[in-house]
Amino acid sequence: MPAHMLQEISSSYTTTTTTTITAPPKGTLKNGGEKLEKTPLYLGEDIRPEMKDDIYDPSYQDAEGPRPKLEYVWRNIILMSLLHLGALYGITLVPTCKFYTLLCAYVYYLISVLGITAGAHRLWSHRTYKARLPLRLFLIFADTMAFQNDVYEWARDHRTHHKFSETHADPHNSRRGFFFSHVGWLLVRKHPAVKEKGGTLDLSDLKAEKLVMFQRRYYKPAVLLMCFILPTLVPWFFWGETFLHSLCVATFLRYAIVLNVTWLVNSAAHLYGYRPYDKNIDSRENILVSLGAGGEGFHNYHHSFPYDYSASEYRWHINFTTFFIDCMAVLGLAYDRKKVSKAAVLARIKRTGDGSHKSA
Ligand SMILES: [Zn+2]
Ligand SMILES: [Zn+2]
C-alpha cells in the first residue's frame, strides 16, 4: 500500500467515522472499531517527525504461497559453532582466570552492549536522541567491538524488523520460532521479502553520516582488531594472563555472551512476557532480557513507541543504557532525548494494552 494511503487510513482514525476504511490493518478490529476512532493507530505523538520508517506498518501482510527453501550459509554455521565451542571451553577456564582478566571481560561486555543498545539501536536505528562527535566515536568503536554487522546494515535490518514485524519481511521473524529469531536467521539466506521490503526504506540519514560510512568501509579489519585481537592481547600483555585464557574468556566467551543477550531481544522478548501497551503485536516485556541486554527487554513498549530514547516507559529501572545516555547528557555529549508523555502512554495502555499494566 502506498505511503499516502497509509497516512490517510491512519488519520481517518482521528475522525468519528471509519466508513472510508476499506481494508482495516491486521489486528485492529479485534480490539473494537469504536476505540480506534479517537486516536491515530501507529504514529502516536509526533515527537520525532524526521523519521517514520521504523513505525509498524500493519497493512503489510505475507503473500500466500509455499515458503521458499532454506538456503544454509555454511561459513556462518561453521564460524558460529566454533565460536560457541570456544566460549564453552572458556567457561571451564573461568575459575583459573586472573581477576583482572574477568574484570576486563566484564568491561568489554558492557562496552560492546552499549555499542549495540545506545549506538546501533537507540541512536542510529531509531534516532531517539542526538550525540556529539566524541560520543559517536565511542559508540562506533563499541559497536565494532560487538561485531554484529556494521551500523548501516544493523539499522537497516532493525528498521525492517520494526516496520514489518512478524512477517517474512522481518529479518528475524519470531513466528518462525525461537531458534530462527535468536540465531537461525544469521545462518540462512535472507527471505526474499526482507530484501524487497528492506530496500524500500529510507536510509538517507545513515548514508549521510560520514562516521557510519567510514565504519562500513573498514569494517572487516576494524572488527578483527576491536573484537578479537585487542581484547585477547590486553590481558596477555599487561598482566601475564595465558594466551588461551585470554582468547577463550576475554574474547570468545565475552563475544558469545554479548551476542546471545542481544539475540534474546529478538527471540525471548518476542515470545515470553506481558503486553501491557499493545496486545496486538508480538513483542513483550521481559525483565530478564532487560537485565542482560542493558535495558532492551521492555520490548512491548519499545515496539509501541520506537522513538522513545529509554526504550521503556521508565528511565533507570533495569536500564543501564538509559543511565549511560543520561550521564552523557550531563556531560553535554547527548541531547534532544525523545520521551513519550505519560498521558500518551496511559492512553495507549487503555486503548490497546492486555490489562497487565498496574494502571489498567
Ligand atoms: Zn523486536
Ligand atoms: Zn528497536
Structural notes for this entry:
The chain has 360 residues and is mostly helical. Helix content is 54%, strand content 1%. The chain has a domain at 74-273. It has helices spanning 3-12, 33-36, 74-93, 99-125, 133-146, 151-163, 178-182, 192-198, 204-207, 210-217, 219-239, 243-266, 268-271, 287-292, 299-304, 320-330, 342-352, and strands at residues 130-131, 334-335. A two-stranded antiparallel sheet has the order 1-2. Helix 4 (99-125) runs parallel beside helix 12 (243-266). Residues 1-43 have low confidence and may be disordered. Bound molecules: zinc ion (2 copies). One zinc ion (ZN) is lined by residues 161, 266, 270, 283, 299, 303.
The DSSP helix count reads 17
Distinct ligands, ions and cofactors found in the model: zinc ion
- Cα-based radius of gyration, to the nearest Å: 21 Å
Oligomer: single chain
Number of strands: 2
> Could you give the order of the helices and strands?
HHHHEHHHHHHHHHHHHEH
Level of helix content? 40-55%
* General shape: globular
Strand order of the largest sheet: 1-2
Major β-sheet, in short? Answer: 2 strands, antiparallel
Distance between the termini: 34 Å
Strand content: under 5%
- Mean model confidence by pLDDT: 87
Residue windows where pLDDT falls under 50 for at least 5 positions: 1-43
Q: Which structural class matches the secondary elements?
A: mainly alpha
